[in-house]
Amino acid sequence: MKLVLNKDKMQIIREQDVVPFRNRVKEYATKIGMGIVNQTKLITAASELVRNMLKYGGGGEALIEVISQGRDNGIRLTFTDKGPGITDIPLAMKDGYTTGKSLGVGLPGARRLVNEFDIKSTPGSGTTVCIIKWKNG
Amino acid sequence: MDRIPILRMGQYLLVTIQIDLYDRLATNLESDLVQAVSKTGARGVLIDISALSIVDSFMGRILNNIGSMSKIMDAETVVVGMQPAVAITLIELGLELKGVHTALNVEKGMELLAAKINSAYEDPDEDEAGTE
Ligand SMILES: Nc1ncnc2c1ncn2[C@@H]1O[C@H](COP(=O)(O)OP(=O)(O)OP(=O)(O)O)[C@@H](O)[C@H]1O
Ligand SMILES: [Mg+2]
C-alpha cells in the first residue's frame, strides 16, 4: 500500500515554469534522501513530461507527492492536462515517434528512467501521466 | 540575465554554463554561438556544462545543434565536465550527443580540440583516406 506523506501542486502554463518545477521536485527528492543518480533520472523524466504537457497539452497541472511503501520512500509525480489527448498510446510510447518534429525520446525515455510509469489519455479531453521513483529504486 | 557570455581565446570560443538554463537562454546561446563562429572564424568551441544538474532532450538537442552547425562552418565542438549522474541519465533516456565531442574537463577538452584542428590542418583528406 502506498501512503501519501506530503503533497504539492504546481500549475505549468509557460516555458518559464519548467525550471522552478524541476527545482521543487529536487527539493522533495533531497528531503527524502534520494541519491544523486536517482534524483537526476527523476528530474529528467519530469522535465520531459512537463515539456510534453506544455507543447502538446497546452499546459496543465503537476502534482508532487512524497509517498511511502513498506520501508521505501519515493516521489510520485502526476501530470494532468486538458489537451487533445493521445489516440494511439503504444505508438506514442515508441522510441523515435513524434508528431512535433522532435526526437521522440520523451515518453519512452521517461519510462526507462523511473520505477513506475502510467499513462492514460482520452482523445478530446486530455492526458494524465503518473511516475514514481523510489529512493532506493 | 538572458545571455550567456561567449569568450574568445585565439581560434577558440569558450562558454561556461553556470546555471540551469531556461529554454530561452539555451536557444539564445545556440544562435549566439553559431553567429560567433561565423563572425570570428573560430575553429573550436568548448562548452563547459559542469554546473548543469540535468540535460533533458531539449538541452541535448541544443548541444547537438550547436555541434552540427559549427561543423558546417568548419569548427569542432567539445562539451566538457558532464556530471556522471547526467551522463548515466542521458544514456537511459536514449539521447546521444552525436553532434559534439565530449571530454572530462576543460583541460582535456582543449587538448582534444587542438588535436582535432591540427590533424585536420595537416591532413585534410584524413577521413576519406581512412575509409579506403
Ligand atoms: N500531453 C500530451 N498530449 C498530447 N499528445 C502528447 C502528449 N505527450 C506526448 N504526446 C504525443 O506523443 C508523441 C511522443 O512524445 P515524446 O515526448 O516521446 O516525443 P516528442 O515530444 O515528440 O519529442 P521529444 O520528447 O524527443 O522532444 C508526441 O509527439 C505527441 O504526439
Ligand atoms: Mg517530448
TrEMBL record, chain A:
UniProt xrefs under Gene3D superfamilies: Histidine kinase-like ATPase, C-terminal domain
Keywords tagged on the record: Kinase, Transferase
Domain Histidine kinase/HSP90-like ATPase, residue spans: 37-137
Alphabetical list of Pfam families matching this protein: HATPase_c
Single Gene Ontology MF annotation: kinase activity
Name of the protein in its database record: Serine/threonine-protein kinase RsbT
From TrEMBL, chain B:
CDD domains to which the protein is assigned, alphabetical: STAS_RsbR_RsbS_like
SUPFAM superfamilies, per database record: SpoIIaa-like (SSF52091)
Gene3D superfamilies per UniProt: STAS domain
Domain of life: Bacteria
Any Pfam family hit: STAS
Residue ranges occupied by any STAS domain in the UniProt entry: 1-113
Protein name: RsbT antagonist protein RsbS
Organism the protein comes from: Sediminibacterium ginsengisoli
